[in-house]
Amino acid sequence: MTKIRTRFAPSPTGRMHVGNLRTALYAYLIAKHEGGDFILRIEDTDQERYVEGAVDIIYRTLEKTGLKHDEGPDKDGGVGPYVQSERQAQGIYLEYAKQLVEKGEAYYCFCDKDRLATLTRTVAGKEINVYDKHCLQLSREEVEAKLAAGVPYVIRQNNPTEGTTTFHDEIYGDITVDNAELDDMILIKSDGYPTYNFANVVDDHLMGITHVVRGNEYLSSSPKYNRLYEAFGWEVPVYVHCPLITDEEHHKLSKRCGHSSYEDLVEQGFLTEAIVNFVALLGWSPENNEEIFSLEELTTEFDYRHMSKSPAVFDYTKLKWMNGEYIKAMDFDRFYGLAEPYLKKALTRDVNLKKIAEMVKTRIETFPEIEEMVDFFETLPEYDAAMYTHKKMKTNTESSLEVLTELLPILEAQEDYSNDALYQTLVAYVEKKGCKNGYVMWPVRTAVSGKQMTPAGATEIMEVLGKEESLARIRVGIEKLKDA
Ligand code: GLU
């Protein structure tokens, strides 16, 4: 059996789109699942779409996500160069296009824009532009004369106009198209660069790629790629086209939704391991219903035969849940390292940040949530006396005023402001009063936090605030309740 070789072939056009990251991940997993090689190739032949810095983004993303390539521009495996513009400079594509011209499988075309514009036809209500093979009629001498005179040209694939072409995709099955639909697509553009359509076939062959993994937007062009393999007499690779990714409204995931790239997600506070895990499930599911997978586990479990062809919905809520699971499972030191900048942004007072970090660890789904969750430690927020009324706790403004007023001297007298000691004090008071815990805890927590939801109970909050600040807040509460 030949060793599996897959490739990730991004175009450096900007941020790493989630769809591209998934392609990279699946290509990586398909190779690694069977001990194969994962190759990185930079497809920069579309000069108009090239974005400065985008190549760095590609390297950085692969490194951060752990998708280590075995070969690439920075790791020669003997089939380089691994950058298409460098391959173009070596004349590789032109050489192979000329081979096809010799075989009658391609031809020079000198038609100008104006003529091409007249070739638009309406088929089934859709406007299409199919080349009419006009230049195929030119004799060898005519072609040579034009080339010698420097007339701009492209090289086109010479596709049959009759019969059908069938190819097999591992996910979508057998696909057959009428050859009449196959346009004579351009292989070499007038600027001398190959089109993606041509370069990908030549490179995949020369690089020994056995499994071509890519987005399903390339599915409709695959018959033409297949024809190219056949024209060269090359073995056709295994095709694995990944399903479309949509947003929750079932539109193609685009920049507009604000979380379409890996970088967007990182900026929104998602962990790389959670992103990778989430992206793995956009189009693939394991046989059991498990959802949490490390990259190593994915490598073992992933089987492209279980990929789905139905569009995968990018469920942001699920991603948040997943990120929360990773945060919960993370060891505390790493968590603290990641949480500290957010804690420091929200809190300038001298409080025990580690204690606060412990409180929020199990409660957040993304790190930026920390700020809003802890800001009450910095300053007591404005709040309404109505917050003291809680139906289930059976509290209202009157009962709360009574509880806080009775507790104030007790808490003033207390020296030990540790959580345990404070808790004992409050429970002793509850027992003496013969009420439920909540009847006391609710007003105390409201007074010291000014919030309905807090990451910890009353006494834990007081421990962090310290005696002076806790008492000051309880006094504010009493005044507020008196006015209510
Ligand atoms: N350069 C193409 C892109 O970025 C890659 C397509 C493929 O994987 O074949 O979309």
From TrEMBL:
Keyword Nuclease (UniProt): no
Entry keyword annotation includes Methyltransferase: no
'HIGH' region (motif): residue ranges: 10-20
EC number(s) from the headed UniProt entry: 6.1.1.17
GO MF: ATP binding; glutamate-tRNA ligase activity; tRNA binding; zinc ion binding
Localization, UniProt: Cytoplasm
Lineage top rank: taxon: Bacteria
Pfam families: Anticodon_2 (PF19269), tRNA-synt_1c (PF00749)
Protein name (record): Glutamate--tRNA ligase
Native organism: Eisenbergiella massiliensis
Encoding gene (name): gltX
